[in-house]
Design a protein that fits this description.
The chain has 356 residues and is α/β, with parallel strands linked by helices. Helix content is 45%, strand content 9%. It is built from 14 helices and 7 strands. The strands form 2 sheets. The chain has a 5-stranded parallel sheet, with helices on both faces. The longest helix has 26 residues, at 31-56. Residues 160-162, 190, 192-193 line the site of magnesium ion.
């Protein structure tokens, strides 16, 4: 039986349901902004759907699917300025695209190719963090540093519901609160940490309640409503720039895809709940809103989709055209003073791979 979990009540929303729940609007967003946000959503959705196909075709490695997380990513990044810093987890692996990062860079990362290792300074996007929550203190440090230098730049750090049980999350959030760091702590609460449900993750009534312990506001928003996410993040960014310190945003959704390509959720997930989520997925929800508003037509939406597909086709072609990296890279940065055995190991690896 599908059930509405307690975590899903009383969330901030802007987009109605086209029926009993009326549509709202966000002050300060022009029609051009609304369409740009749509383009961002479609780009991320297309990236994600194609990546799953590329994985199945053996063209990228294990891939962390973010289907239906697009509204959380696009809505929040739209509230930032270009100089603000983004600290992604593996779930936000393509978030750099929203800053103009080439698709082939993000795809190369999933291909394990060095051309996917971007310089964070190029995009103000930190490296993708795979260890859960360890980037929260990094983001706090950067934000605090910006404040110490008298800059108005802020940072946003993305993590999941499971990360809020980690020591690194606690340390980063606590320090951000104490130092009033200009930081947005953005939690994608998709109610699962692989196979661990939210109910086994925490005894707190909501994740936003944890913010109280760090002396910062905790806000709860519908993670499938791109405009509500934008508005909540914009508020948090304004607070940060005004010197009022960090904000914790809990964006609530329900994971509608496997954790990653290596996961089979069929034995633990609530399938009916997944079906509901898929029917109400965030890109379609926003498109219907824009159509009701008279801002988007079906043919415009199709054109945007085709553009994104062309970007993906070009991106995978570029990524696959990269020459293989030298295997010496595996060892290169491992030691300041390599042990004598390393030269032998590398020679052996080259022999096995036939790299001479
Ligand atoms: C420190 C650490 N412990 C364990 C893991 C293994 N692991 C990978 S994903 C994951 C679940 C994380 O769930 P959540 O924080 O809710 O993020 P989501 O994947 O749902 O976006 C775990 C435990 C890891 N990557 N890092
Ligand atoms: Mg999760």
């Amino acid at each position: 039986m599908a059930q509405v979990l307690p975590a899903e009540r009383d969330l901030r929303r802007v987009i109605g349901d086209g029926d009993g729940v009326p549509d709202g609007a966000v002050e300060g967003l022009s029609e051009a902004d609304l369409l740009e946000l749509h383009r961002w959503l479609v780009l991320l959705r297309t990236y994600d759907e194609r990546s799953l196909v590329y994985h199945r075709q053996g063209r990228i490695g294990t891939y962390a699917i973010f289907w239906n997380h697009e509204a959380m990513q696009a809505g929040s990044v739209y509230a930032l300025e270009r100089e603000d810093w983004i600290f992604p987890s593996y779930r936000e692996s393509a978030i750099g695209l929203l800053r103009g990062m080439p698709t082939e860079t993000a795809l190369s990362w999933w291909r394990g190719h060095p051309s996917g290792w971007w310089n964070p300074l190029d995009w103000n996007v930190a490296s993708i963090c795979v260890p859960i929550g360890t980037h929260v203190p990094h983001a706090t440090g950067l934000a605090w540093g910006k404040k110490l230098r008298g800059e108005t730049t802020c940072a946003i750090v993305y993590f999941g519901d499971g990360a809020t049980s980690e020591g690194a999350f606690h340390e980063g959030a606590n320090l951000a609160g104490v130092m009033r760091a200009p930081l947005v702590l953005f939690c994608n609460n998709n109610q699962w940490a692989i196979s661990t449900p939210l109910s086994e993750q925490t005894a707190a009534p909501t994740l936003a309640d944890k913010a109280i312990g760090y002396g910062m506001p905790g806000v709860r928003v519908d993670g499938g409503d791109v405009l509500a996410v934008f508005e909540a993040t914009r508020d948090a960014v304004l607070r940060a720039r005004a010197g009022d310190g960090p904000t914790f945003i809990e964006a609530v959704t329900y994971r509608a895809a496997p954790h990653a390509t290596a996961d089979d959720p069929s034995i633990y997930i609530d399938r009916e709940r997944v079906e509901e989520e898929r029917e109400n997925e965030c890109v379609g929800r926003y498109e219907r809103y824009l159509v009701r508003l008279g801002v988007l037509t079906d043919s415009q939406a199709e054109e945007t989709k085709q553009e994104a597909l062309a970007v993906m086709r070009a991106g995978i072609a570029e990524a696959e055209a990269e020459r293989s990296a030298d295997v010496g890279l595996v060892f290169e940065h491992a030691y300041a003073d390599p042990p004598p055995s390393q030269a032998h190991d590398l020679a052996e690896l080259r022999r096995i791979l036939g790299h001479g």
